[in-house]
Amino acid sequence: MAELKADVLVLGAGMVGVSAALHLQARGRNVVLVDRHERAGEETSYGNAGLIECTSVFPYMFPRDFGQILKYALNRSADVHYHFGALPDFLPWITRYFLNSSPAGTLRSALAALPLIQRSLGEHEALIVEAGVPELLRRTGWIKLFRSQATMDKSLGELARDRDYGINGDVLDADAIAAREPNLSGGFVGAIHWPAPGFISDPGALAKAYAKLFIRKGGRFLAADARTLTQGDGGWRVAGPNGALVARDAVVALGPWSDEVYRPLGYNIPMKTKRGYHIHLAPSGNAVLHHPVLDTDRGYLLAPMNRGIRLTTGAEFARRDAPPTPVQIARTLPVARTLFPLGLPIEPQPWMGSRPCLPDMLPVIGRAPRHKGLWFDFGHQHHGLTLGPVSGRLLADMVTGVAPFTDPTAFAVERFG
Questions:
Q1: How many whole angstroms separate alpha carbon 132 and alpha carbon 164?
Q2: Helix or strand or coil: residue 165?
Q3: What are the φ/ψ torsions at residue 253 (nearest 5 degrees)?
């Protein structure tokens, strides 16, 4: 069977992989994009809140408040759920996560991610224009609702901190909430409207639009098994549908499945997955939701997607491939119905996806230290949609020998020893 040769194989056609393929292609590289699905954006990139979080400087770290930890430990929370049987596997990782979530560790991760966060929306805007899908981007920002004064005071403190990094939010009272979202109901003490983030009304469609752009510009997209990746004299090889795919360089951008490639190659990277769920519901009557809204005290978010109102949950700590347990949907849906007039579900079952997370809540972007021509681009935690294009640019800088726009040291795999 014939070999298909290229300069780079990009393994994974989610938002991160497609973006890396586009940036490498723009640098003159002949790129083959590989995924187990025949279409891009069929996994984690399909199911999220749709936010390009250009204001989310501080990552989702492990709480340090004892009351909140106890709430999570009782496993009755809507925003965090865990499988008891997975705890032995998760506890070493959670310990590292907790240690990295100290004030000093949180600031270190925030400052490392800041150059990526600041450029995230601009990188998307450029690709959206080139892909010809401006209708997918809405410049509404999002609203964070508070039912308790304590929760609002905490977020106001975080807003004051974030303003040191050029981030602004509008503090809303009950009348201002009603003016922006007249169909919401509930006893809210206030809210913060973050106006800067972009909102994508169909994240899966955006990944597919980027993949179509890649193909229009001469790229090749093939369904193949990335787990067949091997290194040989000609570089890196993957078993393709009609023969081997061969390239000098290979990029592992498989999100929560990246371990299925890097572990056989001898890399012990502390990545775990936080699972999440969503379900689409029709709005009832003529009700309209204008912004994504987070019900902070109840642990869910509603987003006005093209398919309907998407209810998304928080994090579930479970083995990646364990059967779905959408208890967070069951806990939050009755509350969501009191917030906004929701009709019938549009799909029969909730969707489940996995977020690839490292204990410092930073991705791995850069060279694999023990294999020539192997590159990593995964572990974007809750921000795969946000950081896909900008991390693709950073990776392309490194692969092609261009001076990176920011110091990539904080994202190197060597930080884990």
A1: 35
A2: helix
A3: -135, 50
Q: Which residues pair with 4 in a beta bridge?
A: 245
DSSP class of 412: -
Q: Options 3.40.50.980, 3.40.50.300, 3.30.9.10, 3.40.30.10; which CATH number does 59-87+139-198+272-357 get?
A: 3.30.9.10
Q: Is the confidence at residue 1, as pLDDT, over 70?
A: no
Per the confidence metrics, is the pTM higher than 0.85?
yes
Q: 190 - beta bridge partners?
A: 146
Q: To the nearest whole number, what is the mean pLDDT of the chain?
A: 95
- The strand pairing partners of 114, in sequence order, are none
Angle at 240 between CA 237 and CA 241, to 5 degrees: 170
Torsion from C-alpha of 260, 264, 265, 268, nearest 10 degrees: 80
- CATH architecture for the domain at 4-46+204-270+360-416: 3-Layer(bba) Sandwich (3.50)
Reported as half-sphere exposure (CB side, CA atoms, 13 A), residue 59 has a value of: 35
SS3 percent helix, strand, coil of the chain, rounded to 5, is 40, 25, 35
